[in-house]
Amino acid sequence: DVTLDPATAHPNLHLSEDRKQARGQLTRQNLPDNPERFDFEPCVLGCEGFTSGRHFWEVEVGQGGVWALGVARASVKRKGPMSLTRKEGVWALEAYHSLTSPRANLRPNQLPRRIRVSLDYEGRRVAFFSADDDAPILVYTGALFNGERVFPWF
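Structure tokens predicted for Zinc-binding protein A33:
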């Protein structure tokens, strides 16, 4: 159960009152430009980060629209344009495409509405599954967390 960190949320992302949902909006909120806040890419981090262990969370992605989810190192670039790749410290899935270079088009048999993100810190692995039937969607191995805290990333 991930709680989103409002201090990191891009001004065009509106968080629900319970901080469990984020929705992109055209209207930019007037928020302080603190160092933690993403100011170019519409991203937000979860409040709780991890430096060890195995963790998983499920995300409802809904139908249509643009979404991305995964894991990011604490040092991920927050200001200005960034490439959302492993090199930048992001291991992610975007609307059934890998955020890798080059991008891989992933087409599960059925497009799940709920996706499970699985993090194995010591195993250096980030994986994405359909939460409905445990079908794998994408697996990153050999993730270089560099001893840093990593956070759920959206």
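The domain at 45-153 is CATH 2.60.120.920 (Jelly Rolls).
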